[in-house]
Amino acid sequence: MTSGFCTSDGSTRFTARHQALAGREFYRRTPAGLLSSIGLGTYLGKPDEAASARYVEAILAALNGGINVFDTAINYRYTRSEQDLGEALRRAFQEGLAARDEVLVCTKAGFLTAGAVPSNLHPSHIVADSHCIEPEFLSDQAARSRANLRLDTIDVLYLHNPETQLRSIPLAKFEDRIAHAFERLEKLCTAGHIRHYGVATWNAFRLKPGQDERLSLPRLIELARNTAGEDHHFRFIQLPLNLAMPEAFTYPHALLDGEGINVLEVAARSGITVVASASLNQARLVNGLPARLRSRWSAPQTDAEFALQFARSAPGVTTALAGMGQTAHVRENLAVGAYPPAPASDWLSIFQREQ
User: Fold this and answer.
1) DSSP letter at 299?
2) Cα 266 to Cα 315, 318, 349, distances in angstroms
3) Average pLDDT of the segment spanning 213-221
4) Where do the domains of the chain lie, and which CATH numbers do they carry?
5) pTM of the model
6) How far is CA 5 from CA 99, 152, 267, 295, in A?
Protein backbone atom coordinates (compact mmCIF):
# COMPACT_ATOMS: atom_id res chain seq x y z
CA MET A 1 0.00 0.00 0.00
CA THR A 2 1.35 3.39 -1.00
CA SER A 3 0.71 6.33 1.31
CA GLY A 4 -0.12 9.90 0.33
CA PHE A 5 -2.54 11.66 -1.98
CA CYS A 6 -2.56 14.22 -4.79
CA THR A 7 -1.32 17.63 -3.65
CA SER A 8 -0.69 21.04 -5.16
CA ASP A 9 3.07 20.66 -4.72
CA GLY A 10 3.12 17.17 -6.17
CA SER A 11 0.96 17.95 -9.18
CA THR A 12 3.01 21.10 -9.84
CA ARG A 13 6.12 18.91 -9.90
CA PHE A 14 4.36 16.62 -12.38
CA THR A 15 3.38 19.46 -14.71
CA ALA A 16 6.93 20.83 -14.59
CA ARG A 17 8.06 17.64 -16.36
CA HIS A 18 5.53 18.32 -19.13
CA GLN A 19 6.26 21.92 -20.01
CA ALA A 20 4.94 21.69 -23.57
CA LEU A 21 1.50 20.70 -22.30
CA ALA A 22 1.60 23.15 -19.42
CA GLY A 23 2.34 25.95 -21.86
CA ARG A 24 -0.84 25.09 -23.76
CA GLU A 25 -3.07 25.31 -20.67
CA PHE A 26 -3.44 21.55 -20.49
CA TYR A 27 -3.62 21.63 -16.69
CA ARG A 28 -6.26 23.28 -14.48
CA ARG A 29 -5.81 24.34 -10.89
CA THR A 30 -8.24 22.86 -8.34
CA PRO A 31 -8.20 22.48 -4.55
CA ALA A 32 -6.91 18.94 -5.11
CA GLY A 33 -3.98 20.14 -7.24
CA LEU A 34 -3.15 20.78 -10.89
CA LEU A 35 -5.16 18.30 -12.96
CA SER A 36 -4.83 17.32 -16.60
CA SER A 37 -7.73 18.41 -18.78
CA ILE A 38 -7.86 14.88 -20.21
CA GLY A 39 -8.29 11.92 -17.88
CA LEU A 40 -8.05 8.18 -18.47
CA GLY A 41 -11.20 6.13 -17.93
CA THR A 42 -11.30 2.37 -17.39
CA TYR A 43 -14.93 1.39 -17.97
CA LEU A 44 -14.83 -0.67 -21.16
CA GLY A 45 -13.07 -3.95 -21.93
CA LYS A 46 -13.29 -7.64 -21.14
CA PRO A 47 -12.38 -8.82 -17.63
CA ASP A 48 -9.47 -10.91 -18.88
CA GLU A 49 -5.68 -10.95 -18.68
CA ALA A 50 -5.16 -9.57 -22.18
CA ALA A 51 -7.28 -6.50 -21.52
CA SER A 52 -5.59 -6.02 -18.15
CA ALA A 53 -2.14 -6.06 -19.70
CA ARG A 54 -3.23 -3.45 -22.24
CA TYR A 55 -4.72 -1.24 -19.52
CA VAL A 56 -1.54 -1.32 -17.45
CA GLU A 57 0.55 -0.27 -20.42
CA ALA A 58 -1.97 2.43 -21.38
CA ILE A 59 -1.93 3.90 -17.87
CA LEU A 60 1.87 3.97 -17.86
CA ALA A 61 1.84 5.65 -21.28
CA ALA A 62 -0.67 8.21 -20.01
CA LEU A 63 1.51 9.08 -17.02
CA ASN A 64 4.55 9.34 -19.27
CA GLY A 65 2.60 11.56 -21.67
CA GLY A 66 1.34 14.02 -19.05
CA ILE A 67 -2.06 12.71 -17.87
CA ASN A 68 -2.46 12.66 -14.09
CA VAL A 69 -6.21 12.00 -13.64
CA PHE A 70 -7.40 8.39 -13.52
CA ASP A 71 -10.98 7.21 -13.12
CA THR A 72 -12.26 3.76 -12.25
CA ALA A 73 -14.93 1.98 -10.17
CA ILE A 74 -15.06 -1.21 -8.16
CA ASN A 75 -17.62 -2.69 -10.55
CA TYR A 76 -15.69 -1.89 -13.74
CA ARG A 77 -14.69 -5.19 -15.29
CA TYR A 78 -15.58 -6.98 -12.02
CA THR A 79 -12.89 -5.13 -9.97
CA ARG A 80 -10.18 -5.73 -12.54
CA SER A 81 -10.02 -2.10 -13.65
CA GLU A 82 -9.17 -1.04 -10.10
CA GLN A 83 -6.60 -3.80 -9.86
CA ASP A 84 -5.03 -2.84 -13.19
CA LEU A 85 -4.79 0.79 -12.15
CA GLY A 86 -3.23 -0.32 -8.88
CA GLU A 87 -0.64 -2.43 -10.68
CA ALA A 88 0.21 0.36 -13.12
CA LEU A 89 0.62 2.87 -10.29
CA ARG A 90 2.80 0.42 -8.35
CA ARG A 91 5.10 0.12 -11.33
CA ALA A 92 5.06 3.87 -11.98
CA PHE A 93 5.99 4.70 -8.38
CA GLN A 94 8.63 1.99 -8.27
CA GLU A 95 10.21 3.05 -11.55
CA GLY A 96 10.11 6.77 -10.76
CA LEU A 97 7.68 7.58 -13.54
CA ALA A 98 5.44 9.41 -11.07
CA ALA A 99 5.01 9.93 -7.34
CA ARG A 100 1.86 9.38 -5.33
CA ASP A 101 1.32 13.08 -4.67
CA GLU A 102 1.37 13.83 -8.40
CA VAL A 103 -1.71 11.89 -9.50
CA LEU A 104 -5.44 12.03 -8.79
CA VAL A 105 -7.05 8.60 -8.39
CA CYS A 106 -10.85 8.41 -8.43
CA THR A 107 -13.12 5.42 -7.92
CA LYS A 108 -16.79 4.76 -7.20
CA ALA A 109 -19.01 2.75 -4.88
CA GLY A 110 -22.68 1.93 -5.16
CA PHE A 111 -23.24 -0.96 -7.53
CA LEU A 112 -23.00 -4.51 -6.26
CA THR A 113 -20.15 -6.43 -7.83
CA ALA A 114 -19.84 -10.21 -7.90
CA GLY A 115 -17.12 -11.27 -5.49
CA ALA A 116 -17.08 -7.89 -3.72
CA VAL A 117 -20.32 -7.88 -1.74
CA PRO A 118 -20.15 -8.05 2.07
CA SER A 119 -21.87 -11.10 3.53
CA ASN A 120 -23.84 -9.08 6.07
CA LEU A 121 -25.54 -6.78 3.55
CA HIS A 122 -29.26 -6.73 4.33
CA PRO A 123 -31.67 -7.09 1.38
CA SER A 124 -33.63 -4.02 2.54
CA HIS A 125 -30.55 -1.90 1.83
CA ILE A 126 -30.45 -2.93 -1.83
CA VAL A 127 -32.49 -1.23 -4.55
CA ALA A 128 -33.10 -2.46 -8.09
CA ASP A 129 -31.31 -5.69 -7.11
CA SER A 130 -28.03 -3.92 -7.76
CA HIS A 131 -27.43 -0.72 -5.79
CA CYS A 132 -26.58 0.26 -2.22
CA ILE A 133 -25.31 3.38 -0.43
CA GLU A 134 -25.67 2.25 3.18
CA PRO A 135 -22.78 3.47 5.40
CA GLU A 136 -21.37 0.02 6.26
CA PHE A 137 -21.45 -0.97 2.62
CA LEU A 138 -19.55 2.18 1.65
CA SER A 139 -16.89 1.49 4.28
CA ASP A 140 -16.55 -2.05 2.97
CA GLN A 141 -16.27 -0.90 -0.64
CA ALA A 142 -13.72 1.80 0.23
CA ALA A 143 -11.56 -0.81 1.97
CA ARG A 144 -11.77 -3.17 -1.02
CA SER A 145 -10.98 -0.35 -3.45
CA ARG A 146 -7.96 0.75 -1.42
CA ALA A 147 -6.68 -2.82 -1.50
CA ASN A 148 -7.31 -3.16 -5.24
CA LEU A 149 -5.58 0.16 -5.93
CA ARG A 150 -2.80 -0.54 -3.41
CA LEU A 151 -3.29 2.93 -1.95
CA ASP A 152 -3.71 4.04 1.64
CA THR A 153 -5.77 7.02 0.50
CA ILE A 154 -8.15 7.36 -2.47
CA ASP A 155 -8.26 10.93 -3.76
CA VAL A 156 -11.94 10.89 -4.73
CA LEU A 157 -14.61 8.33 -3.86
CA TYR A 158 -17.84 8.93 -5.77
CA LEU A 159 -21.28 7.60 -4.96
CA HIS A 160 -21.93 5.80 -8.23
CA ASN A 161 -25.13 6.84 -9.98
CA PRO A 162 -26.97 7.55 -6.71
CA GLU A 163 -30.06 8.54 -8.72
CA THR A 164 -30.58 4.79 -9.20
CA GLN A 165 -32.08 4.82 -5.70
CA LEU A 166 -34.92 7.08 -6.85
CA ARG A 167 -36.33 4.26 -8.97
CA SER A 168 -37.35 2.48 -5.77
CA ILE A 169 -37.68 4.95 -2.89
CA PRO A 170 -39.24 8.41 -2.42
CA LEU A 171 -37.12 11.56 -2.38
CA ALA A 172 -37.36 12.08 1.39
CA LYS A 173 -36.01 8.59 2.08
CA PHE A 174 -33.34 9.07 -0.59
CA GLU A 175 -32.13 12.28 1.03
CA ASP A 176 -31.98 10.53 4.39
CA ARG A 177 -29.80 7.83 2.85
CA ILE A 178 -27.59 10.44 1.20
CA ALA A 179 -27.17 12.27 4.51
CA HIS A 180 -26.08 9.06 6.23
CA ALA A 181 -23.78 8.21 3.31
CA PHE A 182 -22.15 11.65 3.48
CA GLU A 183 -21.69 11.26 7.23
CA ARG A 184 -19.81 7.99 6.69
CA LEU A 185 -17.76 9.46 3.84
CA GLU A 186 -16.73 12.37 6.07
CA LYS A 187 -15.53 9.81 8.63
CA LEU A 188 -13.53 8.05 5.94
CA CYS A 189 -11.94 11.41 5.11
CA THR A 190 -11.07 11.98 8.78
CA ALA A 191 -9.52 8.50 8.92
CA GLY A 192 -7.40 9.26 5.86
CA HIS A 193 -8.96 6.51 3.77
CA ILE A 194 -10.28 9.00 1.21
CA ARG A 195 -9.42 12.64 0.53
CA HIS A 196 -12.61 13.92 -1.11
CA TYR A 197 -15.97 12.50 -2.10
CA GLY A 198 -18.66 13.30 -4.64
CA VAL A 199 -21.31 11.87 -6.92
CA ALA A 200 -20.68 10.31 -10.30
CA THR A 201 -23.94 10.48 -12.23
CA TRP A 202 -25.47 9.56 -15.54
CA ASN A 203 -28.94 11.11 -15.51
CA ALA A 204 -29.03 13.17 -12.32
CA PHE A 205 -27.61 16.46 -13.62
CA ARG A 206 -28.86 16.14 -17.20
CA LEU A 207 -32.55 16.37 -16.35
CA LYS A 208 -34.97 19.23 -15.90
CA PRO A 209 -36.68 19.90 -12.55
CA GLY A 210 -39.51 17.47 -11.96
CA GLN A 211 -38.06 14.67 -14.08
CA ASP A 212 -37.44 11.26 -12.55
CA GLU A 213 -33.89 10.65 -11.27
CA ARG A 214 -33.01 14.34 -11.29
CA LEU A 215 -30.84 15.50 -8.39
CA SER A 216 -30.34 19.05 -7.17
CA LEU A 217 -26.69 19.96 -6.72
CA PRO A 218 -27.54 22.83 -4.30
CA ARG A 219 -29.50 20.36 -2.17
CA LEU A 220 -26.62 17.86 -2.14
CA ILE A 221 -24.26 20.63 -1.07
CA GLU A 222 -26.71 21.60 1.65
CA LEU A 223 -26.77 18.01 2.94
CA ALA A 224 -22.95 17.98 3.00
CA ARG A 225 -22.90 21.26 4.91
CA ASN A 226 -25.44 19.92 7.38
CA THR A 227 -23.10 17.01 7.99
CA ALA A 228 -19.72 18.73 8.22
CA GLY A 229 -20.17 22.49 7.90
CA GLU A 230 -18.35 24.62 5.36
CA ASP A 231 -15.27 22.38 5.59
CA HIS A 232 -17.12 19.39 4.12
CA HIS A 233 -15.27 17.16 1.66
CA PHE A 234 -18.02 16.92 -0.99
CA ARG A 235 -15.91 18.53 -3.70
CA PHE A 236 -16.36 16.59 -6.96
CA ILE A 237 -19.14 15.73 -9.37
CA GLN A 238 -18.95 13.66 -12.53
CA LEU A 239 -21.49 13.92 -15.34
CA PRO A 240 -21.73 13.12 -19.06
CA LEU A 241 -20.96 16.02 -21.38
CA ASN A 242 -20.28 15.64 -25.07
CA LEU A 243 -21.52 16.78 -28.47
CA ALA A 244 -24.50 14.42 -28.22
CA MET A 245 -25.25 14.95 -24.52
CA PRO A 246 -25.03 18.69 -23.78
CA GLU A 247 -27.79 18.94 -21.17
CA ALA A 248 -25.49 19.86 -18.28
CA PHE A 249 -24.83 23.07 -20.18
CA THR A 250 -28.15 23.69 -21.90
CA TYR A 251 -30.60 23.03 -19.06
CA PRO A 252 -31.04 25.52 -16.21
CA HIS A 253 -30.34 23.73 -12.96
CA ALA A 254 -30.97 26.34 -10.26
CA LEU A 255 -32.17 29.90 -9.83
CA LEU A 256 -29.77 32.67 -8.86
CA ASP A 257 -31.26 36.13 -8.39
CA GLY A 258 -34.22 34.95 -10.43
CA GLU A 259 -32.08 33.72 -13.32
CA GLY A 260 -31.61 30.06 -14.26
CA ILE A 261 -28.00 28.83 -14.28
CA ASN A 262 -26.72 25.46 -15.43
CA VAL A 263 -25.16 22.84 -13.18
CA LEU A 264 -21.63 23.72 -14.34
CA GLU A 265 -22.10 27.26 -13.07
CA VAL A 266 -23.62 26.03 -9.82
CA ALA A 267 -20.56 23.84 -9.27
CA ALA A 268 -18.12 26.64 -10.10
CA ARG A 269 -19.77 28.98 -7.61
CA SER A 270 -19.78 26.30 -4.92
CA GLY A 271 -16.17 25.13 -5.10
CA ILE A 272 -17.08 21.84 -6.75
CA THR A 273 -14.73 20.36 -9.37
CA VAL A 274 -16.54 19.04 -12.46
CA VAL A 275 -15.29 15.99 -14.34
CA ALA A 276 -16.95 15.25 -17.69
CA SER A 277 -17.50 11.59 -18.49
CA ALA A 278 -18.30 9.96 -21.84
CA SER A 279 -16.45 12.71 -23.70
CA LEU A 280 -16.43 10.51 -26.79
CA ASN A 281 -19.89 9.10 -26.00
CA GLN A 282 -18.35 5.65 -25.52
CA ALA A 283 -16.62 5.79 -28.94
CA ARG A 284 -19.74 6.92 -30.83
CA LEU A 285 -18.10 10.27 -31.64
CA VAL A 286 -14.73 9.02 -32.88
CA ASN A 287 -15.84 9.30 -36.49
CA GLY A 288 -18.75 10.44 -38.60
CA LEU A 289 -19.12 13.99 -37.29
CA PRO A 290 -20.94 16.31 -39.73
CA ALA A 291 -18.60 18.26 -42.01
CA ARG A 292 -20.42 21.48 -41.17
CA LEU A 293 -19.48 20.97 -37.53
CA ARG A 294 -15.87 20.00 -38.15
CA SER A 295 -15.34 23.04 -40.38
CA ARG A 296 -15.89 25.39 -37.44
CA TRP A 297 -12.59 24.41 -35.79
CA SER A 298 -9.60 23.86 -38.02
CA ALA A 299 -7.13 22.68 -35.38
CA PRO A 300 -8.31 19.16 -34.41
CA GLN A 301 -7.25 16.69 -37.08
CA THR A 302 -9.72 13.87 -36.39
CA ASP A 303 -13.33 13.55 -35.26
CA ALA A 304 -12.16 12.04 -31.97
CA GLU A 305 -9.84 14.99 -31.35
CA PHE A 306 -12.65 17.40 -32.15
CA ALA A 307 -15.06 15.71 -29.74
CA LEU A 308 -12.50 15.56 -26.95
CA GLN A 309 -11.49 19.18 -27.52
CA PHE A 310 -15.16 20.12 -27.28
CA ALA A 311 -15.64 18.36 -23.93
CA ARG A 312 -12.49 19.66 -22.26
CA SER A 313 -13.18 23.22 -23.45
CA ALA A 314 -16.64 23.41 -21.88
CA PRO A 315 -16.84 26.33 -19.45
CA GLY A 316 -16.67 24.91 -15.93
CA VAL A 317 -15.20 21.50 -16.80
CA THR A 318 -11.83 20.65 -15.24
CA THR A 319 -11.17 17.23 -16.80
CA ALA A 320 -12.76 15.36 -19.70
CA LEU A 321 -12.54 11.59 -19.37
CA ALA A 322 -11.98 9.23 -22.26
CA GLY A 323 -11.69 5.48 -22.13
CA MET A 324 -8.15 4.40 -22.95
CA GLY A 325 -7.72 0.66 -22.86
CA GLN A 326 -4.57 0.60 -24.99
CA THR A 327 -1.57 2.80 -25.70
CA ALA A 328 -2.84 3.73 -29.16
CA HIS A 329 -5.83 5.43 -27.53
CA VAL A 330 -3.49 7.36 -25.24
CA ARG A 331 -1.40 8.62 -28.15
CA GLU A 332 -4.49 9.64 -30.10
CA ASN A 333 -6.09 11.48 -27.20
CA LEU A 334 -2.90 13.20 -26.08
CA ALA A 335 -2.68 14.72 -29.57
CA VAL A 336 -5.39 17.10 -28.37
CA GLY A 337 -2.81 18.50 -25.98
CA ALA A 338 -1.16 20.18 -28.95
CA TYR A 339 -4.05 22.67 -28.97
CA PRO A 340 -4.93 25.07 -26.18
CA PRO A 341 -8.51 24.58 -24.95
CA ALA A 342 -10.93 26.50 -27.13
CA PRO A 343 -11.81 29.89 -25.63
CA ALA A 344 -15.26 30.01 -24.11
CA SER A 345 -16.46 32.35 -26.86
CA ASP A 346 -15.36 29.91 -29.59
CA TRP A 347 -16.83 26.94 -27.75
CA LEU A 348 -20.12 28.74 -27.28
CA SER A 349 -20.20 29.85 -30.90
CA ILE A 350 -19.79 26.32 -32.21
CA PHE A 351 -22.13 24.87 -29.65
CA GLN A 352 -24.94 27.35 -30.20
CA ARG A 353 -24.85 27.02 -33.98
CA GLU A 354 -25.42 23.31 -33.62
CA GLN A 355 -28.55 23.69 -31.51
Assistant:
1) S
2) 12, 14, 22
3) 97
4) 8-354 (3.20.20.100)
5) 0.96
6) 9, 9, 23, 42
